[in-house]
Amino acid sequence: MAKSKNHEYVVVTYLFLAMFIALIGYFIYYMVFLSENFINNPYNSLQNLFSEYVVRGDIESADGYTLATTTVDDDGAETRTYPYKDLFAHAVGYTTKGKSGIENQANFLLLRSHSLFTSQLLNDIKGEKSLGDTVVTTLNYKLQQTAYDALGSHDGAVIVMEPSTGKILAMVSKPSFDPNTIDVDWDDIISGENALLVNRATQGKYAPGSVFKILTTLEYYREQGADVSDFSFDCKSYFTYEGKTIHCASDKSHGTENLKEAFANSCNSSFASISLTLNLEQFQKTCDDLLFNQDLPVSFESGQSRFQITADDSSSLVMETGIGQGKTLVSPLHMLLLTSAIDNNGTLMTPYLIDSVKNTYGDAVKSYTPSVWGTLFTSKEASFLEEYMRSVVTDGTGKKLDTEDYTAYGKTGTAQVSDTTDQTNAWFIGYAKNDREADIALAVIVEDSGSGSKYAVPVAKKIFDAYFE
Fold it and tell me: Cα separation of 13 and 25, whole Å?
């Protein structure tokens, strides 16, 4: 009996010992790997305590331009300034009236100081603050300025990424605001109808129009396989089914087309007919797998895209959905991720905005490296879609991008804003490559303008030209 009790004591002792070791192990793991992530959580108000000892660090572009800095006057009063005003407003963000953008994402990094320990100690003794670290972004000043200027007076958004790494190279949203005067302008900003604080590039929700035909084409390809080469459609400028008529842009008749030609011409009639043949349950799964109805894999502010289709939906809604109208809403960021994955052989790299952190002496204290998020397309699907996106440039609505300086691929779109208005938004999503530079992908939306080929393609061309010159 005593032996049995001793055995139970031993078991209990070892159990508590194992729990203690596990607890110590987790504590060490937390301190080494997780503590900084928790501290750097933008909802952690304790971060503000660091500002009592550290002057908030600078934010720089990848090519060395200072995008945000803190000036300190003779009385020690600090002012956060943004040298380029509204140019980087949504990407870099602001620090008064709350925080946004990189100012929010990298708050903890900007309030840390990796200057010499003796220097920090001396500052503490003198009651002075140490200089915070500098956050170096992936943003490229030249591309940012080009994208901003290319949008001109139109509202809209441009976002540019390097598909092989996930680096965000440019992020423009219009209308914008001046973060230097946000305190003074706050009441006007929040009471206005233009939603100035919304980053249209990452949080905007738009009907995709014909850029969505990439997904309709993919679903058709997944269901039909090699038989897609047998597709033929005689476009008479419209397609009618059960009382619903879908028109091609400008009521243009495209004649007899195969699938690639229908894609290149952005033929609404043919894609309306295709959508009626699709397995809608499978179509829903395809879109869900391609990041619809979920948070996007980014560490900065973004919104969810929406796609819903069921077998109970009317044929009218199915046709509208197949051409990128209906209830579908997307963000430029989401379309950029899909485009980037196609260029990158089906693999999506995790998008990121912060490249490194350096101390006041210019020494790197932290670096961020590219990481694979996952696979969105098989390599065969990516190759298939690339071939079709190339045909848009060589033979379709994106001919303005056909040049010897680089090889461009893409899809145009002209999205009707609602059923009650003729207002349309112009889209272009795509990528370009040559033998000298890394590929770049982009998404462009020009609000209340016109066709994608007339308004969005020229914006994309200016960016490609600037990058590959």
Answer: 18
Contacts of 315 (CB under 8 A, 6+ apart): 241, 242, 244, 276
Biggest CA–CA distance in the chain, Å, is: 95
**CA 148/CA 363 separation, integer angstroms:** 32
Which pLDDT tens digit goes with each residue over 372-409? 999 999 999 999 999 999 999 999 999 999 999 999 99
The predicted-structure confidence for 290-340, as pLDDT tens digits, reads as follows 999 999 999 999 999 999 999 999 999 999 999 999 999 999 999 999 999
Contact call for residues 353 and 91 (beta carbons, < 8 A): yes
With beta carbons less than 8 A apart as the criterion, state whether 354 and 369 touch.
no
Q: ω before 83 within 30° of 0 (cis)?
A: no
Instruction: Give the pairing of strands 233-235 and 255-257.
Output: antiparallel
The torsion defined by the Cα of 57, 60, 62 and 63, in degrees rounded to 10, comes to: -130
- Residues recorded for the chain: 469
Pairing of strands 66-72, 244-247: unpaired
Residue 224: in which H helix or E strand, if any?
Answer: helix 213-224
What's the pTM value of the predicted model, to 2 decimals? 0.89
The Cα–Cα gap between 108 and 420 comes to: 47
Residue 363: half-sphere exposure toward Cβ, Cα within 13 Å: 6
Using alpha carbons, list the distances in angstroms from residue 356 to 143, 228, 364, 368. Answer: 19, 46, 7, 6
Q: Alpha-carbon distance 260 to 284, whole Å?
A: 23
Sequence-ordered list of residues with C-beta below 8 angstroms from that of 102, at least 6 positions apart, any chain: 59, 68, 91, 92, 93, 135, 137, 300, 353, 354
CB 412 within 8 A of CB 211: yes
Give me the sign of the Cα torsion angle 390, 392, 394, 400: negative
Tokens of 34: 């997780």
Gap between the Cα atoms of 437 and 140, Å rounded: 14
- CB neighbour list of residue 148: distance below 8 Å, 6 or more residues apart: 87, 158, 172, 174
